[in-house]
Target: histidine kinase
Amino acid sequence: MQRTRRSLFARLVIRVAMVLAAGAAILMTAAWLYARAAADEAYDRLLQGAAIQILDSLLVEEGRIAVDLPSSAFELLGLAPRDKIFYRVVAPDGATLTGYEDLDFPADVTNARTQALFATTRFRELPVRMVAASRAIADPSIGGWANVLIAQTTEARQALTTELTTRAFLLVGVMSLLALGGTILAVRYSLRPLDALGDMLRRRDSQDLTPLAVDVPRELSPFVDSINHFMRRLDDRLRLLQRFIADSAHQIRTPLTALSAQVSLIDEEALSESDRRHLDRVKNRTSELARFTTQLLNHAMVIHRFDSVQLSPVDVVDVARKSFRAAVPITIDPDIVVSFEAPPEALIVLGDGLSLREAIVNVIDNSLRHGVVSSLAVRVARRGDFVLVEVEDDGPGIPAQDWPQVTRRFVSSKTGEGSSGLGFAIASEVATTLMGALGFREPTPQSGFTVFLELPLLNTRSAP
Model:
């Protein structure tokens, strides 16, 4: 099962999105801490201002401390209308002058003599923020420090913290989305050299093994260098293969030709009947070996040509006529009637003339060896948007159930009769490569068994 390919673009975007999300989380946490500190500072100043005003309102009359609570102090605290206010004014001797007697500061209030003290605590089951401030009483009859304690619930603080945090969250969210969008565009633009490289490789001709000459970022240079190194190695291998095929064709065909010549020089008149039969078998096997070797080399040649030769317009009529002349021997039985029919106009396909010739020759040769009884007809005709090369004989033909098999390499319906099983395989590969097909037609009372090559005409041929 093929594994799903993971996108480099998706990987980069996901990782950048994770970094942005982590950064946004840090910024939001910092925004919340800053908002809470800002709210505390704002309302702490109100508490401190109210405490100082109350301290300033303390008067000593007839040896006693009088408290005249200024309304302005509570007006300051009234800026948070939903909060509750609790206060207590304590005389130097610890007596409560006014306010809630059970209101106590959670720390030592003597430290408030130098600066106001703040604390967060609970009073009467409510969360409150408290301030403690002190003032020295200069009257000698009293002497000491008076303290003011003011507590305020935290609803307004929390509301301000929430408002500031929400605004910060919105700002960070919008900036993160903009950053993610910009990142997507930047990553897409940065990966364009990869798309360009892939497009160049897709459009590159299959026979072009020259090194890539393309400007790429420094990070892609090792990748391009590896491709160029691989293509150089592949080109060297193909050249060695071509040399091997050429050498093999020469080295194999030469001794086979010499062997056939030597066998033909044997004087059959001087041999016994048994030796003549053995000599006939040697001649037949030598002929089969030569034909089989030729087909193997032709098959290799066809495969190589389609991998290395650029297809071009080819006249099927001309190629079929040359194939007919090459495949039908001069020494054919004179009792066999052979014919060739073709229209006067050219029928052009996109292909390789030599490979197409080999395909037609193999079909005709197969018919002569295994099908013909008394007649062979080769026809070239146009059928709609296709051109047909038909080879018809009056033999028994190939059973329909064997048609899918006989186009495979080394598979033949004529076992034991010297068939290599490569003729139809070569023809089928050529037809398939040229966007066509090799087909069969059963004999009828009006016609014999027919093998045909169907190829698309050049002006209607689909792109490969």
Q: What stands out?
A: The mean pLDDT is 81. The chain has ten helices and 14 strands. The two ends are 27 Å apart (CA to CA).
